[in-house]
Amino acid sequence: MTDDDDSEDDDEDNLLRKTGNLLGKSISLPKGIIEMKPCLNANHERESSRPLTTVQFHPSAQVVMTAGLDRSVSLFQVDGKLNPKIQSIHLEKFPVYKARFSADGEQVIATGLRQKMFYVYDMMGGSIIPIPRIRGLEEKCVQEFDVSPDGTYLLLNGTSGYVHLLSMKTKELIGSMKMNGKAIKAGFTADSSKIFSSSSDGEVYVWDVKSRRCLNRFQDDGSLCETSLALSKNGRFVSCGSSSGVVNIYNFDDCLQSTNPKPVKSIMNLVTTASSQVFSPQTEILAVASHTMDDAVKLVHIPSFTVFSNFPVQGKSKIIKLARSMDFSPHSGFFSIANNKGDALLYR
User: Fold this and answer.
1) Which of 213, 216, 318, 337 is close enough to 345 for a disulfide, judged by CB 3.0 to 4.6 Å?
2) Residue 317, class by beta-carbon neighbours within 10 Å (0-12 exposed, 13-18 middle, 19+ buried)?
3) How many helical (H) and strand (E) elements, i.e. helices and strands, does the chain have?
4) How far apart are CA 128 and CA 165, in angstroms?
5) Which of 128, 42, 108, 49 is nearest to 81 (CA)?
6) Each residue of 50-91: pLDDT tens digit?
7) Repeats (WD): which ranges (predicted)?
8) Which of the 8 DSSP states describes residue 138?
9) Taking the mean position of all CA atoms in its chain, how far away is CA 346?
10) Containing H/E element for 214?
């Protein structure tokens, strides 16, 4: 080992000391400047020639998944240095629109660009299970979906404002909920008891999972069309992104009780569609991005709701390119961005 290696390890130790052990043990993250270090791409051992549509960290193992238009789902071990490939599966004639781990981390669910069927990859058994037409579900195409944190439900966005609730275990239809506009995004609350769904007319609906009854609906402040949605793991915040690039962060309780809630903060740093967003597991950071402009990724400090000024690094060349998907590792030690160049950028 060289002196340079020693100093690099020292730098890393200092970084971990300042941010807590992968941020998990930090009391609170300071605002203003975030200490981040670019690592080798998460998918370095299997780069994609097509845009990636998904990056997601495994809920319990030190593993990251990528998926995209090259019709593959790949798993990598995350160490920030080598990120060795664990395995990769190819789905014939199936460009992946979105992929997600099941809550227990034993399966991967993947939807395609234009297919009504979807796939379940059983990682324990090594089998790839096609889920063909679901009885009672008259949808020509299944793309957008979410998995409930407790592992009980699968939520599929349908056409004509429908959101469909399925059993995660049997993949059978339990029931459907209908909004006025087109269903854009939908997600479960951290305790899996409620669903938030956003529509093309700027409205957000709150549903009770068990009864599938609408508990509340409200107009996202100033929004003409919803484009993204994120719910914090600590159950305190709901974040709504719109086609104008504005991201409104609301108090969770206000969204349940008011038909006209006021955002606690409006993030105005994106100037094009706010297409994706994700809270870090400890609700210390909200990452927001637009897939229509290079380097359009911002990290918002919670609870000050201020944007970290040093990310992305403003150089002559755009590094991030068009961001398609983002995720934080379970203890927030790593952050990854999947882009249209087929890279899963990784930061420590």
Assistant:
1) 337
2) exposed
3) 2, 28
4) 22
5) 42
6) 999 999 999 999 999 999 999 999 999 999 999 999 999 999
7) 188-217
8) -
9) 15
10) strand 214-219
Identify which of 225, 218, 257, 260 has the alpha carbon closest to the alpha carbon of residue 241: 225
Asked if 326 and 278 count as a contact pair (C-beta separation under 8 A), the reply is: yes
Parallel, antiparallel or unpaired: strands 344-347 and 335-339: antiparallel
Region 295-306 average pLDDT: 96
Torsion of CA 193, 186, 326, 242, to 10 degrees: -130
Query: DSSP for 146-195?
Result: EE-TTSSEEEEE-STTEEEEEETTT--EEEEEE-SS-EEEEEE-TTSSEE
pLDDT at 24 over 60: no
Tokens of 282: 């400890």
- How much is the mean pLDDT over the chain? 91
Per the CB < 8 A criterion, the answer to whether 286 and 239 are in contact is yes
The half-sphere exposure of 133 on its side-chain side, counting CA atoms within 13 A, is 6
Maximum CA extent, the chain: 65
Closest by Cα among 261, 259, 241 to 251:
261
Residues 6+ apart with CB under 8 A from 93: 71
Residues linked to residue 203 through DSSP beta bridges, in sequence order: 219
Q: How much is the CA Rg of the chain, to the nearest whole Å?
A: 20
| Location of structure tokens 């060795």 | 84
pLDDT reported for residue 19: 38
Is the pLDDT reported for residue 309 higher than 60? Answer: yes
Residue 285: CB partners within 8 Å, gap ≥ 6?
29, 34, 279, 299, 300, 301, 302, 328, 332
In the chain, the domains with their CATH numbers are: 225-252+262-348 (2.130.10.10)
User: Comparing C-alpha atoms, which of 51, 94, 60, 54 is closest to residue 74?
Assistant: 54
pTM of the complete model: 0.90
